[in-house]
Amino acid sequence: MHILRCRVSQRKTSFVFILAKTEIIGLSKEIAIKAGETKMLMRINHPNFGLADAIIYKIAKSKNAPVLTGDKHFKGEENVIYIKG
After folding, report:
1. Fewest 10 Å CB contacts: which of 1, 45, 70, 79?
2. Per the confidence metrics, is the pTM higher than 0.70?
3. Could you give the 3-state DSSP secondary structure of residue 58?
């Protein structure tokens, strides 16, 4: 029972830490429209490029933050740090 309480406590501590270091960003209509356009353009060269990827990319761009990824369809794109897996 003690071990279970310790694990629950560790999870709560981790969750609090993540919330303290995280910014939750809403999806605005403007970003949604830009993401849809990005998805259409990216699908020309990357048929599997998804809407979620486009949303992440456009939100990061709006925050002047890079996208850190190992997804091949992001390789070579502006504002992307590509990690070779």
Report:
1. 1
2. yes
3. helix
Find the domain containing 68 and state its range.
Answer: 25-85
How many whole angstroms separate alpha carbon 15 and alpha carbon 69? 23
Assess contact for 47 and 75: CB atoms under 8 A. Answer: no
Number of domains the chain contains: 1
- Which tokens in the block code for residue 12? 């709560």
74, amino acid identity: F
How far the first Cα of the chain sits from its last, in Å, is: 40
Amino acid at residue number 58: K
Greater confidence, 15 or 39?
Answer: 39
Rounded to the nearest 10 degrees, the angle between the axes of helix 51-62 and helix 29-42 is: 120
Q: Give pLDDT tens digits for 53-80.
A: 999 999 999 999 999 999 998 999 999 9
